[in-house]
Design a protein that fits this description.
single chain, mainly alpha, 13 helices, 81% helix, globular, disordered N terminus
Length: 322
């Protein structure tokens, strides 16, 4: 826990450094946020809900037999809430959604394989999204410093995706099971057998006819629809930024966030990225920072009810047992 808090402090230092670099008027940030208004904030939350449905549909397409979309919308809502609201706990959202899948009756190996496959395909979708943002920047002949950091962020994201995919292709559980056969405890043998079963289901999820392509297309669409949150926020604040520039901003901010995955919730990293990259694209730093804060507010408004609902379900189960 101390290490995670230290990383949070590191993110705060990054934000402070970004704010010292820019001529930002922090007193103007609350006014920029308030200009969005209640209606604008509701529309932003609605756009995010649409991306949640698209991501849920992508995840659902990897599971056979096909479960209900409503169930996977709830699972994705919980997964996002856990990742955003419980960021100090690594993988909290994924673990919470895996637990919810088990409660819904999915076998552990099937639930784990579907979750890992969806995480991988979502990362590949983000890579496509980042490439689109880079294409917009290169076509516009933007600031060379911005292009430099954009390439660093995209390269870091590509390396992360490659490492995640290679780890799955290695088939570690099957290798360990074969190497240590006859020399392991019963519990370890069961764990490795379960891992090998999950690897088989994972390969089946990737090789299913049209499933991987459909899931990838839905995730890319979700990333593109998600740029509407920033566009609406900027429009309500009276900031003019072309849709292509908004796409570039969002793709690069999320690439930096992914590269800084070790910082819980990207606290400070997201805010500093919006301020620096937004300024390079022509936004006033306080406006770009306000966009980030509005997104943090949306995380709280949509995330807290999901965690409360999850705890209510777990509480009812605990009462039923006792």
């Amino acid at each position: 826990m101390r290490g995670r808090l230290a990383l949070l402090a590191l993110g705060g230092v990054g934000l402070a450094a970004a704010l010292r670099t820019l001529p930002i008027d922090l007193s103007a940030v609350p006014g920029a946020v308030l200009r969005i208004g209640l209606l604008g904030f509701v529309v932003i939350c609605t756009v995010h809900a649409a991306t949640t449905v698209l991501c849920a549909a992508a995840w659902r397409s990897l599971v056979q037999p096909r479960p209900s979309l409503r169930l996977f919308c709830g699972l994705r809502w919980l997964r996002d809430a856990g990742d955003e609201m419980l960021a100090v706990l690594p993988g909290a959202g994924s673990l919470a959604s895996l637990r919810a899948m088990r409660l819904a009756g999915f076998p552990v190996e099937s639930a784990g394989a579907a979750l890992v496959a969806d995480l991988t395909i979502e990362m590949l979708g983000q890579l496509v999204f980042t490439a689109l943002g880079l294409a917009v920047l290169l076509r516009g002949a933007s600031d060379p410093h911005l292009l430099h950091w954009a390439l660093v962020g995209a390269g870091s994201l590509a390396a992360l995706v490659a490492a995640f995919v290679l780890a799955q292709l290695a088939g570690l559980a099957g290798r360990l099971e074969g190497a240590r056969a006859g020399r392991m405890s019963h519990r370890l043998a069961r764990a490795l057998a379960l891992g090998r079963e999950m690897e088989g289901r994972l390969r089946a999820a990737y090789t299913g006819r049209g499933r991987t392509g459909r899931a990838l297309a839905l995730h890319v669409l979700a990333w593109l629809v998600g740029t509407g949150e920033a566009w609406i926020a900027l429009h309500r604040m009276g900031a003019s930024l072309a849709p292509g520039s908004v796409l570039a901003l969002e793709s690069l901010v999320f690439a930096v966030r992914s590269a800084a995955f070790f910082v819980p919730g990207s606290i400070g990293v997201q805010e500093g990225s919006y301020a620096l990259l937004g300024a390079a694209l022509g936004l006033r730093p306080e406006v770009a920072l306000a966009v980030s804060l509005v997104k943090r507010g949306r995380e709280i408004v949509l995330g807290v009810p999901a965690l409360v609902a999850w705890q209510a379900i777990e509480g009812r189960r605990a009462l039923a047992r006792h």
